[in-house]
């Protein structure tokens, strides 16, 4: 995510494939909508609850991500 882009509730985002998470990446490449903010971690870009879209292999779900793990999705992305 670039310095100029910020995440807000209602944004369409994509989960980055490369994540610095203990246990490996979580839901890499999935697309979703930011539904709410977690109050912890605001100094580092925040933590966001994202409603991930369903895929052929996975159902729709809500997951928590740090801002560093998300990027704004392009409009034609599915």
Question: Using only CA atoms, what is the Rg?
Answer: 12 Å
- At CATH level 3, the topology is SH3 type barrels
Shape: globular
CATH class: Mainly Beta
Percentage of residues in strands: 25-35%
Helix percentage: under 10%
* Unreliable stretches covering 5 or more consecutive residues: none
Count of spatially separate domains: 1
Strands side by side in the biggest sheet:
4-3-2-1-5
* Biggest beta sheet summary: 5 strands, antiparallel
CATH architecture: Roll
Total helical segments: 0
Taking the alpha carbons of the first and last residues, their distance comes to 19 Å
By helix and strand content, what is the structural category?
Answer: mainly beta
CATH superfamily: SH3 Domains
In round numbers, the mean pLDDT is 87
Fold blueprint:
Layout lengths: L11 E4 L15 E8 L8 E6 L8 E6 L3 E3 L6
Antiparallel strand pairs: 1-2, 1-5, 2-3, 3-4
List keywords for this structure.
globular; 78 residues; SH3 type barrels; five-stranded antiparallel β-sheet; single chain; mainly beta
């Amino acid at each position: 995510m670039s310095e100029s882009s910020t995440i807000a509730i209602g944004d369409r985002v994509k989960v980055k494939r490369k994540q610095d998470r203990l246990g490996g990446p979580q839901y890499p490449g999935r697309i979703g909508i930011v539904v709410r903010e977690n109050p912890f971690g605001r100094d580092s870009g925040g933590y966001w609850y994202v409603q991930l879209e369903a895929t052929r292999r996975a159902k729709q779900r809500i997951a928590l991500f740090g801002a560093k793990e998300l990027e704004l999705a392009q409009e034609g992305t599915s």
